[in-house]
Amino acid sequence: MKKLITGLVLLGVVATAVAQKDDSSNDALLSNGGIESLRGKAQLSETRESDKMKRVLKDREVVERNYVHQPPVIPHQIRGYKVDLNSNKCLSCHGWKYAKEVGATKVSPTHFETRDGMTLSDISPRRYFCSQCHVPQVDAKPLVKNEFRAVESLSHK
Amino acid sequence: MNMLKKIWQILKTPTSAAVGFVIALGFVGGVVFWGGFNTTLELTNTEEFCIGCHEMGDNVYQEYKETIHYANRSGVRATCPDCHVPKDWTHKIIRKIAASKEVWGKMTGIIDTREKFQDHRKSMAMREWKRMKDNDSRECRNCHNFEYMDFSEQGSRSVKMHSTALASGEKTCIDCHKGIAHELPDMEGVEGWH
C-alpha cells in the first residue's frame, strides 16, 4: 500500500513536471484550453478570420421596447448621418420643429433636462449625441439563446 | 477716290485660289483652336486637376472619400466635376468663368490652411447650396432622374418625401441632401436643420 501511494505521488510529481514543461512554451500559455467562446475556437495567439459585416436593416415600423426606459432602437439606416458640433441630422426629423411634418417620433422631453433635473429650452448637451444610446439594427441572430420577453404592458398590439 | 475704288476692286475680286486658301486656313485654324480650347477645358474638368491643389485635396476630397459617391457597392462614382460643373456647354462656360475667382482665391491663399478653410466653410457651402437651389439641383439630376425613380425600391422615408415635396417641385434635391459629400459647416440658421 505504502509503495502504491509513493508510486502515485511520484507519478503525480512527474506528470506535473511534464505539464509545467509544456506550459513553458508560449503557445500553451496562450491556449484557450479548447473552449469555444463567442470568438470561436481560435487560439488567442492567432488572428482569426473576421465575421462578415452585418447589413443594417432598411426602413421598418417602430420596434417594440423590451423594458421601461429602454432607449428605442433606430428602425432605419443612418449611414452618413452626422451628429457633431456643427449639425445633428437626427433632429432634422426627430426634433419637435419637424417631427409632425415628417411623421417621425419626437425626441422625449427627458432629453431637455440637465442632470440636475432642470428643463432647458432645447436638447440638453448631455443628451445631444443620439447614437450614444439609440442604435440601428442589423440582420444578426442573437449570439446566445435568449428567452427574454418584454412585459405585457409594453408590447404593441 | 479713284485709288480707293481700285483697292476695293482688288479686294472684291480675289483669285479663286486665294479664296480657297483663306477659307481652308480659317477652317483648319478653327478646328485646331476649338479642339485645343475644349481639350484644355476638359482637362480642368477632372478629379486629378481639382485635387491638384492642396486646398481641395486635403480638405473636401478627404471628406468625400468616406461618402457613397466615392465608394459604393456598384463602383459607379460621381467625381468633383459631376456635381460642381454643369454638363451642358453654356452653363459650363458660365461656371468656368465664375471659377476664375477661385484662381484668385488660390493665389491670395484665402483658404490655404485647415483653419482658414473651416472659417470659410459656411460661406462656401452656402454659395454652392444657392447655386444648386437656383438651378433645381441640375447636377444631381444628371444622374438621379426623378422620372425613373422606382418608389417600390426606395425606403418608406424616401418615398414619403420624394412622392410629395420633390414630385410637386416644392423642394429640390439640395434642400434635404446637404452634406452628403463633404463635412457640414455650423448649420445654425439653415432651414431644415436644428
From TrEMBL, chain A:
Subunit structure, as described in the record: Component of the periplasmic nitrate reductase NapAB complex composed of NapA and NapB.
Protein name, per record: Periplasmic nitrate reductase, electron transfer subunit
Secretion signal span: 1-19
InterPro entries: Multihaem_cyt_sf, NapB
Keywords: Electron transport, Heme, Iron, Metal-binding, Periplasm, Signal, Transport
GO cellular component: periplasmic space
Binding annotation for heme c 2: H111, C130, C133, H134
Similarity section: Belongs to the NapB family.
Post-translational modifications reported in the UniProt record: Binds 2 heme C groups per subunit.
Taxonomy, superkingdom: Bacteria
Protein location: Periplasm
GO biological process, one term: anaerobic respiration
Binding-site list for heme c 1: H76, C90, C93, H94
One function term, GO molecular function aspect: metal ion binding
Known function: Electron transfer subunit of the periplasmic nitrate reductase complex NapAB. Receives electrons from the membrane-anchored tetraheme c-type NapC protein and transfers these to NapA subunit, thus allowing electron flow between membrane and periplasm. Essential for periplasmic nitrate reduction with nitrate as the terminal electron acceptor.
UniProtKB/TrEMBL annotation, chain B:
Positions of heme 1 binding: C50, C53, M56, E102
An annotated GO BP: denitrification pathway
Cellular compartments annotated: Cell membrane
Residues reported in the UniProt entry to bind heme 2: C80, C83, H84, H182
Spans traversing the lipid bilayer: 16-37
Residues noted as binding heme 4 in the record, renumbered to the chain: C173, C176, H177
Reported modifications of this chain: Binds 4 heme groups per subunit.
InterPro entries from the UniProt entry: Cytochrome_c-type_ET, Multihaem_cyt_sf, NapC/NirT/NrfH, NapC/NirT_cyt_c_N, NapC/NirT_cytc_sf, NO3Rdtase_cyt_c_NapC/NirT
Membrane topology (UniProt): Single-pass membrane protein
Keywords: Cell membrane, Electron transport, Heme, Iron, Membrane, Metal-binding, Transmembrane, Transmembrane helix, Transport
Obligatory cofactor(s): heme
A Pfam family per the record: Cytochrom_NNT
Segments forming domain NapC/NirT cytochrome c N-terminal: 16-187
GO cellular component, one term: plasma membrane
Gene Ontology terms for molecular function: electron transfer activity; heme binding; metal ion binding
Cofactor binding remark: Binds 4 heme groups per subunit.
Positions of heme 3 binding: C140, C143, H144
NCBIfam families: napC_nirT
Family assignment from sequence similarity: Belongs to the NapC/NirT/NrfH family.
Name of this chain's protein: Cytochrome c-type protein
Species of the source: Pseudoalteromonas denitrificans DSM 6059
